[in-house]
Amino acid sequence: MKNNFLASFGLLCILVLFTSSCQNNEAKKQVVDTTDSIAKADSMAACTPIKDPNNPKPMALMMRLMAANADSMRSQLLRGEKLDSLKYPFIKFYLVEPTDPNVLEPKFFDNARLFQESYKALFAHPDESKKYYNLMINACVNCHESYCSGPLKRIRKFPIE
Ligand code: HEC
Fold first, then answer.
1. Which of 116, 117, 148 to mutate to test the pocket of ligand 1 (most atoms within 8 A of CB)?
2. Residue 131, CA distances (Å) to 20, 95, 126, 155, 159 in order
3. Going by CA atoms, what residue is nearest to atom 27 of ligand 1?
4. Which is more confidently placed, 137 or 10?
5. Contact 27, 111 (CB under 8 A)
6. Gap from CA of 4 to ligand 1 centroid (Å)
7. What is the pLDDT of residues 11-58, one digit of tens each?
8. Among 17, 25, 35, 65, whose Cα sits 20 to 30 Å from the Cα of 59?
9. Residue 127: helix, strand or coil by DSSP?
10. What's the gap in Å between 148 CA and the centre of ligand 1?
């Protein structure tokens, strides 16, 4: 549990460094390559055209952390444990650079706001965690139906029966 928290914190630190140091090179890399995106449409990381899969954008990295956290929350809830809000701070993914800058439109931010509300609701209802956890995962799905369908298959396995 402590290790998990340290790992999340470490990743966030790296993300902060990454966003502040790499911005000059970003413009060049944002070439949209349709062929690439079709080829990778089925793979996990391929919701948007990724020129260099070894150099993911900050939003993609944050999403990976969010998915890892959802996975860990699910295991904890299945074991009947309470979720600690300090272990799962809200990640402001909508403030950082995405692989495809075209996603940054009003509907995306509406989805992000609804997701943030359901994330807060989860920690505001410790006695109904499973229900609110499922609602939070629903908010992941809702955004992904419009913006990034690649990970949907994985996200749809997150809800608790
Ligand atoms: C407001 C919209 C939105 C919400 C809410 C959202 N996502 Fe995402 N997600 C995206 C977008 C856009 C990307 C593509 C990011 C990029 O490539 O820069 C993405 C990418 C991903 C990826 C692929 C990351 C990679 O390896 O490239 C995963 C996995 C993921 N999201 C899981 C989740 C989970 C789990 C949740 C809920 C806890 C969630 N997402 C909530 C929009 C959203």
1. 148
2. 38, 28, 10, 16, 9
3. 45
4. 137
5. no
6. 20
7. 554 544 444 443 444 333 333 333 333 333 333 344 655 556 678 999
8. 35
9. helix
10. 7
* pLDDT for position 154: 96
Over residues 72-126, the pLDDT tens digits come to 999 999 999 999 999 999 999 999 999 999 999 999 999 999 999 999 999 999 9
Spell out which residues line ligand 1, taking CB within 6 angstroms.
Answer: 44-45, 47-48, 56-57, 59-60, 63-64, 66-67, 70, 98-99, 103, 108, 111-112, 115, 139-140, 143-144, 147-148, 151, 155
Within 10 A of 137 (CB to CB), how many other CB atoms are there?
Answer: 22
DSSP state of 84: P
Q: pTM of this prediction?
A: 0.77
Look at the block and give the residue holding tokens 């391929």: 46
Q: 149 and 44 in contact (C-beta within 8 Å)?
A: no
Q: Which atom of ligand 1 is nearest to the CA of 155?
A: 35
What are 150's two structure tokens?
A: 């690649």
